[in-house]
């Protein structure tokens, strides 16, 4: 795109945008406002950047997060000065902990208009604390070739720092003086002869940043092989190449002979044929005191973050096995503060391709895990066959077999995340699983899912009513979203997860101040935004809806549930699934 020499700000902004385009930027989310006018105009006029205008900054930031999750490439996020920038903060926190690349550009008044009540001005430097990978403030635009080169190279650095050594947020504060609109300035037009565009951008090219990988030392692999009571715990993961990730863990399992306890919010349960040692029922299994003692490990290989299950975490705290934590992130992934060693190794290059280590035959311990897992799987299937009422846990169970293959699935926090971990069974349907478990909040749920659908084509969101209501402004993006989103709305009139806390026994104040039912008619909400809505009466009706209807747009399928009954029923089911295995003999 030719540079815009109408005035200093248009030139500055067009170099800004063209540099990012040449580095590989394809999507920019723009929030309306005056101070950001030059950036908005430059992004909007670029023919190769998908520039999307969204009103609400908080929803816009989560939409950008969703696009970046799906594409695994940085997305630009632009706003005006003042509190607009503060509304980006929740999504920035989530991006930090989820390792998602975002480029945040906050327009600002120049230094001479700060701290003097100039209006719509706050301190925006280091606004997001320690959450960005890198942050800074650009110099105010000047008509000087050296300053233009400075701008270009600062953006090159910002692009790199958003992806390396780990993906995350880069924040640049962008001070701009008047005129903000593309009002002609003769001196800038005269300056055009000093800038040879192709020479100026000659060294700018798209580069993929890949974290450095290190293989496990062969002696350590041999040490693990000598252990007959080891397990692999594969926790939360959104890898860019899910099949490679699954292949690497399967290879590690084959080399060690260890079972793989696989969180549902990772690719493993959805590429089951790649790993014959998958264990998906660890939560109900470990609720059985006899089995939890019988299956106590001596060694644990933890891949990334631990699964959500409190039962699993309590078991690890009680048994205190020696743990190796394998992840390229330098963060501490051990909230249990146990006997753990961090190996900063990256998947899928975790296992040496030509390791001088033989495959290990399955141990009795492995066979025990597989045997009990099969039994509990059978119990789950039989249990849900007999549930004909609207139990919210059954929605998570059914989606695993009803959704189209390879579709993107975004799982909201609170009870949907837990029900998926409890009841989502393994298959080879290759679902793309997404989540916001970095900070585990419910904010931005709908907007993130819409961003995933926009970038990926088709997506499904499993959410509760409070998480959806917390982000209804996300629906303002409905006409900008290119793909399709089906929302499976579990409406139990309040926060179901709080029913599991001790405070649920104290009402008042429980219902009003913790469960917080909102009594919203979602059909009317959908009518307001022009969104397709269906009330789902039973499981057969849900099955019919999910067979088709994945065209462009949004539809909400509401399933009404009884929050208190479901909390009791879930607890009874989880306690019963492995209870009948007491007294079973060990498999031969």
Task: Describe the model.
37% of the residues lie in helices and 15% in strands. It has helices at 8-23, 37-45, 57-71, 83-86, 89-98, 145-161, 186-191, 197-200, 218-225, 242-256, 282-286, 289-294, 310-319, 364-385, 392-402, 415-423, 445-456, 465-469, 510-515, 522-529, 539-546, 563-576, and strands at 27-30, 50-53, 75-79, 102-108, 134-137, 169-175, 230-234, 260-262, 278-279, 299-303, 322-326, 340-343, 408-411, 432-435, 458-464, 484-491, 532-535, 553-560. The strands form three sheets. A six-stranded parallel β-sheet has the order 2-1-3-4-6-5, sandwiched between helices. A six-stranded parallel β-sheet has the order 9-8-7-10-11-12, sandwiched between helices. Helix 13 links the parallel strand 10 (299-303) and strand 11 (322-326). The mean pLDDT is 92.
Secondary structure layout plus pairing:
Elements lengths: L7 H16 L3 E4 L6 H9 L4 E4 L3 H15 L3 E5 L3 H4 L2 H10 L3 E7 L25 E4 L7 H17 L7 E7 L10 H6 L5 H4 L17 H8 L4 E5 L7 H15 L3 E3 L15 E2 L2 H5 L2 H6 L4 E5 L6 H10 L2 E5 L13 E4 L20 H22 L6 H11 L5 E4 L3 H9 L8 E4 L9 H12 L1 E7 H5 L14 E8 L18 H6 L6 H8 L2 E4 L3 H8 L6 E8 L2 H14 L12
Parallel strand pairs: 1-2, 1-3, 3-4, 4-6, 5-6, 7-8, 7-10, 8-9, 10-11, 11-12, 13-14, 13-15, 15-16, 16-18, 17-18
Q: End-to-end span in angstroms? A: 70 Å
Sheet with most strands: strand arrangement: 2-1-3-4-6-5
> What is the CA-based Rg, rounded?
26 Å
Number of strands: 18
User: What fraction of the residues are assigned to beta strands by DSSP?
Assistant: 15-25%
Summing up helix and strand content along with how strands pair, one would put the structural category as: alpha/beta
Mean pLDDT metric: 92
Biggest sheet, in brief? 6 strands, parallel
Portion of residues in helices? 25-40%
Question: Number of helical segments?
Answer: 22
Oligomer: single chain
